[in-house]
Amino acid sequence: MPLFGKSQKTPAELVRSLKEAINALETGGDRKAEKAQEDVSKNLVSIKNMLYGSSDSEPPADYVVAQLSQELYNSNLLLLLIQNLHRIDFEGKKHVALIFNNVLRRQIGTRSPTVEYICTKPEILFTLMAGYEDAHPEIALNSGTMLRECARYEALAKIMLHSEEFFKFFRYVEVSTFDIASDAFSTFKELLTRHKLLCAEFLEANYDRFFTQHYQRLLNSENYVTRRQSLKLLGELLLDRHNFTVMTRYISEPENLKLMMNMLKEKSRNIQFEAFHVFKVFVANPNKPKPILDILLRNQSKLVDFLTNFHTDRSEDEQFNDEKAYLIKQIKELKPLPEA
Amino acid sequence: MEIQIHQHFSTDDSNNNNNINNNNKKSNLEQTLVAATTHSVTANNSILMPPLDTKLLANKQGLHANNEANNINMDVDTADGEVSVLLANKNFHYDALSNPDQSFEADVNVDGNGGAKFVAGDEAKQLLSEQTHAQVTWLDSEQIDALDLTTLDIGNMFFNRVDSAEIIYQKKKKEIKMVGKYVMGDVLGEGSYGKVKEVLDSENLCRRAVKILTKRKLRRIPNGEQNVQREIQLLKHLQHKNVVALLDVLYNEEKQKMYMIMEYCVGGLQELVDSAPEKKLPLFQAHRYFCQLISGLEYLHGCRIIHKDIKPGNLLLSLDQILKISDFGVAEQLDLFAADDTCTTGQGSPAFQPPEIANGHESFSGTKVDIWSCGVTLYNICTGQYPFEGDNIYRLFENIGRGQWQAPDWLYKLDAQLAGLILGMLQAEPAKRYSIQQIRCDPWFISAPEEKGPPIPIPPLKHDVYRRSTVLPYLDAYHYETERDLEEVYFTEHDLNRELARQAAAAAAEIKAQQQQKQLAAANATGPSTSADASTSNSISKEKKSSSLKRRAKKLTSCISVKKLSNCRPS
Which coenzyme or cofactor does it need (chain B) (predicted)? Predict the structure, then answer.
């Protein structure tokens, strides 16, 4: 035991006293809460230092970390911390995120014990996702960093994608606070693009609900940023080879073509440009279904004129010009299907 | 640093057995032997002498010995740097342009074995234009033009005795050169397509690498030009941290050159593996690179790109140890609407090809080709060997195509999980071969092998372990070097040898010091470790010339905008 300074608490003691402090914070009155707040902060710093090491102590020993994680699982403290995140002070919130992410990354051989633990306690994930709700905007960004750390693990991403809560993201990405909406969008995107096969399966299984009911709304959002970001993500999703089945389905639906053609005419040049990259897939499709072909044929000459004058100042971008020329040629050569 | 050797001799010497060209009535002829060879280059311009380089020493001895034998033999290896050797008339300074009719030039043609022979003018010209010897660094266009103006009778071939003591060296001035907005630095490496040099973006001061492609070299490679066009098309649209970024492409029509500006990388995985003991990496380090390779490959496959030439030589490393997949020369992008990943051509490196290509199948799954190559790559960097070998490509393909490969017992002993993963990736049957998803779920892939000992460091660039910018010396010379500084740059072989010996001693002392430091550190493990590197850079002499740092007002011209050369030779 060191002669000077405080005695080192064991992981079990730390976890216990933190748990007590949080319970006190949850229930206590003004006076008690103040004291509890102090205890919570102190204990969080100690746990953080135990995991990361601090400037004046050695990096943590493996058995201490193992013991600490075990205590965290047994006491269910992770969930408790996340549920009370809004009650913890500013620095404390950051420490919670640091502790959570560190414990999550812990690996023993091929096993990730924390990931396995969270799989058995999915409410941790759902509580984190609810962090984007309007009730406590101050915890949204901390929840976001923890969520994205979770999304790196396929098992956890799967739970999140296939949950009812996932569809709440369509609301979160449109909240009025810009930084929260952006953070929610990056988590949303991470969940949809990180694990290719998982995402492809999800999109195929939930095609109607995802695209027809929800994504359409994002593309028609009144918020410029939402419109532009979601259109860009749509292009990325459709052009990813892993989502081939989803793409073929998407480009065979006339509603989607109409939407893209309207977006080509948007005021914003950036949106026009992103829409072009989705629109081209409809035209390039060698097996266009009749409804798609009909729309293109009806607008044949208008489209040719429009595309000829479309973003003519992008002379530097060779690929864009090649693609544009290709589309014009394709549209010019369109012929109606022979009457069967 | 370039070194020019002025060799003085007189052609009207009575004991000279040379038969002098009748056209050249003057007794004193200017003879210029032009050749180029290489040796190590230091980043610091103020260093007068080249650093110790055994290659150079060998080179010099070779030169010396063969001079005695009335021949010149040089060991040429242009991958390192440039030294030009000029043998000039004793009475005339080398000035071919001012008196072109009377100059007489021979060209050293270096064959593949490093031996050199004299080649007469016309032949030399032809050789120059064809550039058949990639390892010779040829001179710039003015000097080539000078060669054009000369006439030479083949009958006048002669060998001349040269006393090595009469050779004096001259440090080549660091002439600053710009391509577009990029300031050129030294050569980083050389491929079949051309050199790769370090550059500095003069607008944002970012360190970049430029791949210089000459039309002449491209034409000699089957599909060379198409491959480069394809690579540019593909790379422009790729954006991933494990795929090398192409930032800019510049063309110079006059010089028939193309400049591809890329991210600065410190070299390939191949060089790193080669520099390691037993040519293999510790497992934890191999694991780190392999994970990044799979991440980059998954992105490429998502973009419908089949790389087809995955191998350690095509995997670059950045300064912060990020692996970058490069060389998309034979890559193929699948059609957006292709039903599956069927490919019909495979042009990658033979040792990394799967059985379906070795057996000459008409069509095969493209993604599975890349998986196989990744398997061979993993095997190679972990063990230093190849799963399949053969004296020639036929034997090799026979071995690859023979049937299911089995992991050797010693591989299981090394790491059973690793052996399992490699076996999964080297399934002869493409359908049974792992997918990227399966690799991601593989126990070896998920688990992180224990870090035992330090990782293999990135090999130093020309003895510079810090990989300092090689552009700075050029900028330094441009801004702070005055004409007077350049006058005293002649030095003799004696000086050179002395400097080399001095540097050898310094290097030895440094190694000794480092060892002592290590022992000290080991003995005193708890104490604060002091930097062992303090002496490293100072050991080399820093004879900063006593110069009045006079800035010269000189207009910097980009070579992209140079006026058309007066006499362009037909190619």
Answer: Mg(2+); Mn(2+)
- Rounded to the nearest 5 percent, the helix, strand and coil shares of chain B are 35, 15, 45
CB-CB under 8 Å, B236 with A319: yes
Asked if B571 and B216 touch (Cβ cutoff 8 Å), the reply is yes
* CB within 8 Å: B303 and A240: yes
DSSP H or E run through B306: strand B305-306
Query: Which one is predicted more confidently, B460 or B164?
Result: B460
Mutate to test the interface with B, among A111, A192, A196 (most CBs of B within 10 A): A196
Report d(CA B228, CA B218) in Å as an integer.
9
Q: In percent, how much of chain B has pLDDT > 90? A: 33
- Among B90-99, B227-236, B344-353, name the one with the lowest average pLDDT: B90-99
Instruction: Burial-class residue B453 by CB neighbours within 10 Å (0-12, 13-18, 19+).
Output: exposed
As to burial, measured by CB atoms within 10 angstroms (0-12 exposed, 13-18 middle, 19+ buried), residue B254 is middle
| Correct CATH for B269-446 of 3.30.70.270, 3.40.50.2300, 1.10.510.10, 3.40.50.720 | 1.10.510.10
pLDDT of residue A297: 95
Spatial separation of the C-alpha atoms in residues B374 and B351, rounded to whole Å: 12
Is the pLDDT higher at B494 or at A236? Answer: A236
- A241 close to B (CB below 8 A): yes
Question: Exposed, middle or buried: residue B165 (CB in 10 Å: 0-12, 13-18, 19+)?
Answer: exposed
The residue ranges of every structural domain in chain B are: 2-172, 174-266+461-488+545-571, 269-446
Q: Two tokens at A64?
A: 């201490």
Catalytic residues of B: 309
Contacts of A284 in chain B (CB under 8 A): 336-337
What CA dihedral angle connects A75, A81, A82 and A85, to 10 degrees? 170
